Structure formats: C-alpha cells, structure tokens
Amino acid sequence: MAMANRLAGSTSPYLQQHAGQPVDWWEWGPEALAEAKRRDAPILLSVGYAACHWCHVMAHESFEDPDTAAYLNEHFVAVKVDREERPDVDAVYMGATQAMTGQGGWPMTCVLTPAGEPFFAGTYFPGEARQGMPAFRQVLEALVDAWRTKREQIATIGAEVVGHLRATGSVASQPLGEDELDASVRTLATQYDAEAGGFAGSPKFPPSMVLEFLLRYAARTGSSDALAMVEHTAESMARGGMYDQLGGGFARYSVDRYWRVPHFEKMLYDNALLLRLYLHWWRQTGSPLAERVVRETAEFLLAELLTDEGGFASALDADTDGVEGAYYVWTRAQLVDVLGEDDGAWAASLLEVTDAGTFEHGTSTLQLLTDPDDQGRWATVRERLHKARSERTKPARDDKVVAAWNGLAITALAEAGVLLDERAWCDAAVRAAELLATVHTPAPGRLVRTSRNGRASHNAGVLDDYGCVAEAYVAVLGVTGDAAWLRRAEELLSTVLEQFADGDGFYDSAADADPLVARPRDPGDNASPSGTSAAAAALVACGAVTGESRWRDAAEAAVRAAGSVATQAPRFAGWTLSVAEAQLAGPVEIAVVGPPGDEREPLHRAALSTTSPGAVVVAGEQGTEVPLFESRVLVDGRAAAYVCRNFVCERPVTDPSALTV
After folding, report:
1. Separation between Cα atoms, residue 131 and residue 563, nearest integer Å
2. What is the pLDDT of residue 544?
C-alpha cells in the first residue's frame, strides 16, 4: 500500500505503528498540503505519541477499520503527526483545539483547509457512538457534508481561528527581581497541598521545575518554608506508587492526589529533570532518600533508556499487551509466589500491597512509605522481585532520540556523575552529547530534533532543542575540559539569537523553518522547560563561562519575555524562575585547573557541591582554551580551584575543604 511506504521510513515509532493501517497516511509537510490543494479536500490531522493510551485505542477502533479508512481516504488527506517530533505543529493546532473546544489533549483530531487553517477540532472519538460522544464515522460524514455545502462558513471559521492564534502569540515583558521572586513563592504557597505535597489536586504531575526554583530560592534566601515544600513533595513522590520502587525512575503522573497510582508511562524528560532535582536536594541537605533516588534513577536511565548509539530513548509505554500498568503492579499472591510465605507477607505490608488492591482488578502499586527496619532483607527482596518482574512482558519502548530531552539527561548525568563519583554516568553523558554533535548536527549551529537507530529525521530543531542541548554542552565542557564543547554551545546560541529571537522574546520555531499558519511562541513551561526558559538557562551558563555580555544580555531578555507568566502563574514558569535565581545569585565562576586524577577530582566535587544557584563549574587542564581558564595555572604544581563571584576573583585554593562558595 502507498501509505505503508510513506510512513514505514519514518524515524518515529509512533508513525511506524500506523504504517500498516488501511488509512492512506501522509506525514506533515508541504507535500501533504499540496495534495489537499490538488484534490480540493480537507486535511484530517491526527496528532499523538507512542506512549499515549487513548491514541492506541482510537487507532484500533477507527484507523484499523477498513470501512472507516476507506471513507477517510476518499474524502480527506489524512496526516499523522508525532507531537514529540513536531512540537511546533502540535503547539499550533493544540492552541486551535483549546480555542475551539475549551480543552485539549491527545489524540488530537483537527480538520483543516488545504491552506492549513483549522475549522474543526476535538480529541478522542470512539469507533461507535457512546456516552454522548458521536462515532468517528459520524463526525467524518458531517464534516464532508459541511465541506460540500458550507465552504464560506468554513473559510470564516478558519480565518478567525488563525487570527486568534496569531494574536495570542504576543508576549508582555516583565523583569524578575527579588520582589517578584518573593511574590512567586507566596503564590505557590497558596496552591500547595500541605497534606500530600505538590500543587493543586489530581491528577498530579511532578512539579520538577517549580521545586528546582524553590530549592534555589531556599539556597539564596534561607527560606525554611520554601525548602519544606520541596522536601515534603520530593519525599511523597519518591515513596509513592509513581516512583518505581524496584527499577528506579518515575512514571508520568499520579492519577490521585497522594502519588499512589500513576499513569505508568515513563518519560525521559521527567526522569532527567527529577534526577537533577533530587541531586540538588541531596547536595543541599544530604538527604539519604534523595541520594538513593538519584542513584536508582540514573541507573534506570542507563539500563532501560540507553540506545545502542549512545542516546537516550524517549519513553517506556504505559501498557503491556494492551493492559495499563500490568508490568508494574502486584497482588499478595504474586509476592508470596516469588518470595515465599514469610518474605511475601513482609513485602506486602512494607509495600502497601492489599487484598483489595490499590489499583485495578485487585492489584496494587508498590509504595515504600517508610524505610524498612531491615535494609539487608529489603535489598534481597527488592532484587528478587525485580528479577521476577523482568521475566514479564516489558512495555514497548519509544526509541527515538529527542535532542532537547537528551540535553536534559546529559546535564543531569554529568553533574550527578561528578558529585557522586560515578564515572560511568559522566561517560554516558559525553557519549550522548557526541551523538547530538554528529547525527543531530547537519551543519555547525543547526540541530535536527530527532533520530532513530543513528539516522537523523528531517524534523528541524525547535527552540527547546537548542537551549537544552547548548546547556548540556556546557555541562560536558565542565566534566571534560574540552573547549570544543564550548564552541558547539556558542554556535547553537548564535543560531538562537539569529533565528528565534525578536524584539519581544523568542519564537519556538526558526525563522527559516517551513511556515505554519501561526508561528508558535509560548514562554510558559509545560512538562519540560519551554524553549524560552531553556534558552535562558543555556545563555546564563555560557555567559558565566565566557564572560561575554551578549550571552548575559540575551539571558536577561529571555527571562523578561517569560516574566509575566512567572508572576501570574508561577506553576508554569518554574524553569524561568530558576534561571532568574541564578541571575540574582551569580555569576559564580569556578575553574578547577589540573590534570585528571586524585588532586583535581576532589576539588571538582567540592566546587559542584556549592548550592549557589548562579554557580558554573568547569574542570580542565592548564592551558584549556576557555575564557574561564585564561591565566589560570597550577599552584605550587598542584591542582587549584579559582573562584570569581560577581566579577571579583578570590585567591586560588588547593584544599577542597577550603573551597567555600
């Protein structure tokens, strides 16, 4: 079939899942729009992602149905989009869906004119009418009738929606100083769930970026209230069913207020952000729980998401054989079967596995609400349960490599590897960065968003790719001392300023990208940092290493661009607020000079142990061609740390215990 040939070559596992369907799918691009214009047919745009449960349901009910597919092929040009590969397309049409229906989500279903103007939008439609929802076939038939008989009305709707999308792209600038950061913390405190941790009610998503801000705020101000919100939430998440007590790593979100029952998909970006958060919590307080979560989550990344090419896969599915959570949940009987009567009963009590079950069909998620009295027994039980679980059918893995999310993982692993003296984590970070610097870099300063099996897609990088990868390159510079990583970071950030910036902030797509009906721009964070906040973080880091004012000035502009979101809705601007904290506290530049070995490594760890939000640390040999290393030499033949804060430098130190920041 033609459609099988069209999608089978995609780098997206999600698109490949649809390659064998009877729907004549197209990928998003000029060719699909041209085909719709040639046929004078509307475009049926279906947007989803590989780990989306209801995307799979709609695919099975409708897209695999021969009669529905035949009708769709006859009357529409069907376009399938992986939202993780094309966040720009997703952002534009999700904005349209929300504007037209008041809500959004995936699968997202939009119908467009051949020019790409949306005139109908929705989410999931069942194969058969039920619960007040029309059948998908009924929706298609009504749209075909409207296309034939109400073309003027369709044109009017499309123009109005596009006008709305373009109008909402404007942003208001707002600087973020001490007063604004104080006010943001007060706002967050009013939304805080003092009983269960986190913010607002269910479902609860891990507020990693907001907690990072609160942690940095506490480090700068000494606020016990801010730190308490972090510690309570982080502990609640790590002890609940949203955290994988056997294999490490966090699920996407909790369906309940108390973090007991997750939506079981595991996303790379969540685990990268949470790994860094728990690392910084451990660094700031020495929490043993935080250290355990860091170690287990880092090992989860390397064991479950690392690809053969050295990058990190995007996600693990929520379902196993079509059953959500089947890989992760247990009954008392299953525990006894694996562990025997005594250990099984002990584990059931420890892990909150009940006869009635805390999940579905009598099964329970595993929670570790208190530390076991017998750690040795728990270690043995955990290992036996993990081994038994590994024999179950594993959830599918979306093994495409997303540049931005890999950038987040690289930064977290590089920092954690140094601080916890785990060389393998640093090595993994460097190898993933090398994949981005080769496969994902078609020309100096340009990025491709996704790859799979070492083959780059045709999807151009968007702003969060450039920001997250540039910050990752600075982190890799920090652990390798290789000046090539600084050059690569600066090339990416030059592209940010040339292709994404304008007088009011930053667009999420490049100026030379294929045009959409509206150019997306959203400074607010979602599940991962927004493009604007990711760029701001990278610009701050690069400015600290180089001392160049153009990077610092651009970082201030990026923070101002998201400042109004931060002051009005701080829950959706955690990364911007975190960067603002770094600007307020810094810059603190630390160069650790010396050959790799027993002298330099303790100094490097001590330097990274600083809790100052504005600190940037680079370790390298004398003569490293980085501005931070200019005139920095060994002291009496020994490795030394040079500290400069707020553009004033202190005497170098050779004793890690004397390194206080």
Report:
1. 42
2. 92
Task: Kindly state the average pLDDT of the residues 605-619.
Answer: 90
Q: What is the mean pLDDT of residues 656-661?
A: 83
Is residue 486 within 8 Å of 62, Cβ to Cβ?
A: no
**d(C-alpha 229, C-alpha 242), whole Å:** 18
107 preceded by a cis bond (ω within 30 of 0): yes
| Cβ–Cβ < 8 Å for 208, 277 | yes
Determine how β-strand 615-620 pairs with β-strand 588-593: parallel
Supply the mean pLDDT for the chain: 95
Give 543's contacts (C-beta < 8 A, 6+ positions apart).
Answer: 549, 551, 552, 555, 587
pLDDT tens digit sequence for 63-119? 999 999 999 999 999 999 999 999 999 999 999 999 999 999 999 999 999 999 999
How far is C-alpha 571 from the chain's CA centre? 16
576 contacts 563 by C-beta, under 8 angstroms: yes
Q: Are 407 and 419 in contact (CB under 8 A)?
A: no
Q: How far is CA 434 from each of CA 406, 410, 430, 431, 588, rounded to the nearest angstrom?
A: 11, 11, 6, 5, 27
pTM for the whole thing?
Answer: 0.95
- Cβ burial of 153 (10 Å; 0-12, 13-18, 19+) is exposed
Main-chain phi, psi angles of 625, to 5 degrees: -85, 65
Of residues 522, 569, 564, 560, the one with CA closest to residue 539: 560
CB 117 within 8 Å of CB 162: yes
Among 439, 508, 396, which residue's Cα sits nearest to residue 16? Answer: 396
At residue 3 the predicted structure's pLDDT band, cuts being 50, 70 and 90, is: very low
* CB burial of residue 19 (10 Å; 0-12, 13-18, 19+): middle
